[in-house]
Protein backbone atom coordinates (compact mmCIF):
# COMPACT_ATOMS: atom_id res chain seq x y z
CA UNK A 1 0.00 0.00 0.00
CA UNK A 2 1.52 3.34 -1.11
CA UNK A 3 2.01 6.06 1.45
CA UNK A 4 0.14 9.37 1.02
CA UNK A 5 2.27 12.42 0.28
CA UNK A 6 1.19 14.76 3.05
CA UNK A 7 3.50 17.64 1.92
CA UNK A 8 1.90 18.16 -1.52
CA UNK A 9 -1.64 19.45 -2.04
CA UNK A 10 -3.70 19.19 -5.21
CA UNK A 11 -4.21 22.58 -6.96
CA UNK A 12 -7.61 24.20 -6.46
CA UNK A 13 -7.97 24.56 -10.25
CA UNK A 14 -6.58 22.22 -12.81
CA UNK A 15 -4.18 23.55 -15.46
CA UNK A 16 -6.84 23.11 -18.14
CA UNK A 17 -9.34 25.25 -16.21
CA UNK A 18 -6.69 27.93 -15.60
CA UNK A 19 -6.03 28.15 -19.35
CA UNK A 20 -9.74 28.51 -20.06
CA UNK A 21 -10.02 31.31 -17.48
CA UNK A 22 -7.14 33.18 -19.14
CA UNK A 23 -8.74 32.76 -22.57
CA UNK A 24 -12.03 34.13 -21.23
CA UNK A 25 -10.35 37.11 -19.51
CA UNK A 26 -8.50 38.34 -22.65
CA UNK A 27 -11.62 39.70 -24.45
CA UNK A 28 -12.81 41.17 -21.14
CA UNK A 29 -9.52 43.07 -20.77
CA UNK A 30 -9.72 44.30 -24.37
CA UNK A 31 -13.29 45.49 -23.81
CA UNK A 32 -12.33 47.36 -20.63
CA UNK A 33 -9.38 48.99 -22.44
CA UNK A 34 -11.68 50.05 -25.28
CA UNK A 35 -14.17 51.75 -22.94
CA UNK A 36 -11.37 53.44 -20.97
CA UNK A 37 -9.99 54.81 -24.26
CA UNK A 38 -13.44 56.13 -25.25
CA UNK A 39 -13.80 57.77 -21.85
CA UNK A 40 -10.38 59.43 -22.28
CA UNK A 41 -11.38 60.83 -25.67
CA UNK A 42 -14.62 62.20 -24.21
CA UNK A 43 -12.71 63.89 -21.38
CA UNK A 44 -10.47 65.63 -23.91
CA UNK A 45 -13.54 67.36 -25.35
CA UNK A 46 -14.19 69.08 -22.00
CA UNK A 47 -12.62 72.59 -22.27
CA UNK A 48 -11.05 72.65 -18.79
CA UNK A 49 -9.54 69.19 -19.18
CA UNK A 50 -8.33 69.98 -22.70
CA UNK A 51 -6.63 73.17 -21.51
CA UNK A 52 -4.84 71.19 -18.78
CA UNK A 53 -3.61 68.65 -21.32
CA UNK A 54 -2.38 71.43 -23.65
CA UNK A 55 -0.48 73.08 -20.79
CA UNK A 56 1.20 69.78 -19.94
CA UNK A 57 2.11 69.18 -23.59
CA UNK A 58 3.50 72.72 -23.90
CA UNK A 59 5.81 72.07 -20.96
CA UNK A 60 7.13 68.86 -22.53
CA UNK A 61 9.53 70.53 -24.95
CA UNK A 62 12.26 68.34 -26.45
CA UNK A 63 15.60 68.88 -24.67
CA UNK A 64 17.38 69.77 -27.94
CA UNK A 65 14.79 72.38 -28.90
CA UNK A 66 16.21 75.86 -29.39
CA UNK A 67 13.74 78.05 -27.50
CA UNK A 68 15.99 81.08 -27.36
CA UNK A 69 13.63 83.23 -29.42
CA UNK A 70 13.37 86.64 -27.78
CA UNK A 71 9.63 86.99 -27.30
CA UNK A 72 9.64 90.66 -28.36
CA UNK A 73 10.57 89.61 -31.91
CA UNK A 74 7.61 87.30 -32.44
CA UNK A 75 5.05 90.12 -32.99
CA UNK A 76 7.37 91.54 -35.67
CA UNK A 77 7.68 88.15 -37.38
CA UNK A 78 3.90 87.77 -37.27
CA UNK A 79 3.31 91.23 -38.77
CA UNK A 80 5.79 90.47 -41.56
CA UNK A 81 4.07 87.14 -42.18
CA UNK A 82 0.71 88.90 -42.51
CA UNK A 83 2.09 91.33 -45.09
CA UNK A 84 4.26 89.02 -47.18
CA UNK A 85 2.84 85.54 -46.55
CA UNK A 86 6.16 84.17 -45.27
CA UNK A 87 5.73 81.91 -42.21
CA UNK A 88 6.90 83.72 -39.11
CA UNK A 89 8.67 80.56 -38.01
CA UNK A 90 10.79 80.68 -41.17
CA UNK A 91 11.75 84.28 -40.45
CA UNK A 92 12.70 83.26 -36.91
CA UNK A 93 14.84 80.44 -38.30
CA UNK A 94 16.71 82.86 -40.58
CA UNK A 95 17.19 85.30 -37.72
CA UNK A 96 18.52 82.46 -35.55
CA UNK A 97 20.99 81.20 -38.12
CA UNK A 98 22.12 84.60 -39.42
CA UNK A 99 22.88 86.47 -36.18
CA UNK A 100 21.65 84.25 -33.33
CA UNK A 101 18.76 86.66 -32.85
CA UNK A 102 21.02 89.70 -33.12
CA UNK A 103 23.28 88.65 -30.25
CA UNK A 104 26.51 88.36 -32.27
CA UNK A 105 29.29 90.75 -31.36
CA UNK A 106 29.06 92.41 -34.75
CA UNK A 107 26.25 92.59 -37.27
CA UNK A 108 28.69 92.80 -40.18
CA UNK A 109 29.95 89.53 -41.67
CA UNK A 110 33.51 89.03 -43.03
CA UNK A 111 32.16 89.31 -46.60
CA UNK A 112 30.19 92.48 -45.88
CA UNK A 113 26.65 91.27 -45.11
CA UNK A 114 24.97 93.74 -42.77
CA UNK A 115 22.31 94.03 -40.14
CA UNK A 116 20.05 91.75 -38.16
CA UNK A 117 19.25 89.56 -41.18
CA UNK A 118 22.62 89.88 -42.95
CA UNK A 119 21.89 91.53 -46.29
CA UNK A 120 24.62 92.23 -48.79
CA UNK A 121 24.39 95.97 -49.63
CA UNK A 122 23.58 95.28 -53.28
CA UNK A 123 20.79 92.88 -52.36
CA UNK A 124 19.31 95.42 -49.96
CA UNK A 125 19.60 98.41 -52.32
CA UNK A 126 19.40 96.59 -55.63
CA UNK A 127 21.81 95.02 -58.08
CA UNK A 128 20.99 97.69 -60.65
CA UNK A 129 23.17 100.05 -58.66
CA UNK A 130 26.12 100.97 -60.93
CA UNK A 131 28.73 99.79 -58.39
CA UNK A 132 27.24 96.35 -57.73
CA UNK A 133 29.43 93.45 -58.87
CA UNK A 134 30.95 90.30 -57.42
CA UNK A 135 29.61 89.34 -54.00
CA UNK A 136 27.52 92.49 -53.81
CA UNK A 137 29.32 94.84 -51.48
CA UNK A 138 29.29 97.71 -53.95
CA UNK A 139 30.28 101.26 -53.19
CA UNK A 140 26.95 102.45 -51.88
CA UNK A 141 26.70 105.46 -49.62
CA UNK A 142 24.76 105.26 -46.37
CA UNK A 143 22.24 107.76 -47.69
CA UNK A 144 21.56 105.63 -50.77
CA UNK A 145 21.43 102.43 -48.79
CA UNK A 146 18.71 103.69 -46.47
CA UNK A 147 16.69 105.65 -49.01
CA UNK A 148 13.44 103.84 -50.01
CA UNK A 149 13.36 105.80 -53.27
CA UNK A 150 16.84 104.62 -54.22
CA UNK A 151 15.95 101.04 -53.26
CA UNK A 152 12.89 101.20 -55.49
CA UNK A 153 14.98 102.67 -58.30
CA UNK A 154 17.63 99.94 -58.14
CA UNK A 155 15.25 97.05 -57.46
CA UNK A 156 16.39 96.17 -53.95
CA UNK A 157 14.60 94.27 -51.19
CA UNK A 158 15.05 96.82 -48.40
CA UNK A 159 11.83 97.85 -46.67
CA UNK A 160 10.86 100.80 -44.49
CA UNK A 161 8.67 98.75 -42.15
CA UNK A 162 7.95 101.41 -39.53
CA UNK A 163 7.31 104.24 -42.01
CA UNK A 164 10.02 106.52 -40.64
CA UNK A 165 11.32 107.30 -44.12
CA UNK A 166 14.38 105.08 -43.71
CA UNK A 167 15.02 101.48 -44.76
CA UNK A 168 17.72 100.36 -42.35
CA UNK A 169 19.19 96.82 -42.20
CA UNK A 170 20.23 97.62 -38.62
CA UNK A 171 16.63 98.39 -37.62
CA UNK A 172 15.01 95.14 -36.47
CA UNK A 173 11.62 95.83 -38.07
CA UNK A 174 13.10 96.97 -41.37
CA UNK A 175 15.46 93.99 -41.42
CA UNK A 176 12.76 91.36 -40.77
CA UNK A 177 10.34 92.90 -43.25
CA UNK A 178 13.14 93.06 -45.83
CA UNK A 179 13.90 89.36 -45.26
CA UNK A 180 10.22 88.52 -45.67
CA UNK A 181 10.09 90.60 -48.86
CA UNK A 182 13.11 88.74 -50.26
CA UNK A 183 11.90 85.26 -49.30
CA UNK A 184 8.41 85.86 -50.68
CA UNK A 185 9.78 86.92 -54.07
CA UNK A 186 12.46 84.21 -54.05
CA UNK A 187 9.90 81.42 -53.94
CA UNK A 188 7.96 81.24 -50.66
CA UNK A 189 4.96 82.94 -52.29
CA UNK A 190 4.80 79.93 -54.64
CA UNK A 191 5.39 77.40 -51.88
CA UNK A 192 9.03 76.86 -52.89
CA UNK A 193 10.65 77.16 -49.46
CA UNK A 194 13.90 75.34 -50.23
CA UNK A 195 14.45 77.39 -53.37
CA UNK A 196 13.88 80.64 -51.48
CA UNK A 197 16.19 79.64 -48.61
CA UNK A 198 18.92 78.70 -51.08
CA UNK A 199 18.54 82.07 -52.80
CA UNK A 200 19.07 83.76 -49.44
CA UNK A 201 22.39 81.95 -49.02
CA UNK A 202 23.74 79.65 -51.75
CA UNK A 203 24.62 76.74 -49.48
CA UNK A 204 23.02 73.31 -49.12
CA UNK A 205 24.12 73.22 -45.47
CA UNK A 206 22.49 76.60 -44.91
CA UNK A 207 19.20 75.24 -46.26
CA UNK A 208 19.40 72.27 -43.88
CA UNK A 209 20.17 74.52 -40.91
CA UNK A 210 17.24 76.83 -41.66
CA UNK A 211 14.82 73.95 -42.13
CA UNK A 212 15.99 72.36 -38.88
CA UNK A 213 14.99 75.40 -36.82
CA UNK A 214 11.97 76.21 -38.96
CA UNK A 215 10.42 72.78 -38.35
CA UNK A 216 10.98 73.00 -34.59
CA UNK A 217 9.54 76.50 -34.34
CA UNK A 218 6.59 75.52 -36.53
CA UNK A 219 5.86 72.47 -34.35
CA UNK A 220 5.70 74.66 -31.24
CA UNK A 221 4.40 77.84 -32.89
CA UNK A 222 1.16 77.98 -30.89
CA UNK A 223 2.97 77.74 -27.55
CA UNK A 224 5.51 80.36 -28.61
CA UNK A 225 2.80 82.74 -29.83
CA UNK A 226 0.86 82.27 -26.60
CA UNK A 227 3.90 83.09 -24.45
CA UNK A 228 4.74 86.12 -26.59
CA UNK A 229 1.15 87.40 -26.27
CA UNK A 230 1.19 86.93 -22.50
CA UNK A 231 4.45 88.87 -22.19
CA UNK A 232 3.14 91.65 -24.43
CA UNK A 233 -0.04 91.96 -22.36
CA UNK A 234 1.96 91.98 -19.14
CA UNK A 235 3.96 94.98 -20.35
CA UNK A 236 0.82 97.04 -21.07
UniProtKB/TrEMBL annotation:
<protein>
    <submittedName>
        <fullName>Lytic transglycosylase domain-containing protein</fullName>
    </submittedName>
</protein>
<feature type="transmembrane region" description="Helical">
    <location>
        <begin position="20"/>
        <end position="40"/>
    </location>
</feature>
<feature type="domain" description="Transglycosylase SLT">
    <location>
        <begin position="152"/>
        <end position="192"/>
    </location>
</feature>
<keyword id="KW-1133">Transmembrane helix</keyword>
<keyword id="KW-0472">Membrane</keyword>
<dbReference type="InterPro" id="IPR031304">
    <property type="entry name" value="SLT_2"/>
</dbReference>
<dbReference type="InterPro" id="IPR023346">
    <property type="entry name" value="Lysozyme-like_dom_sf"/>
</dbReference>
<dbReference type="Pfam" id="PF13406">
    <property type="entry name" value="SLT_2"/>
</dbReference>
<keyword id="KW-0812">Transmembrane</keyword>
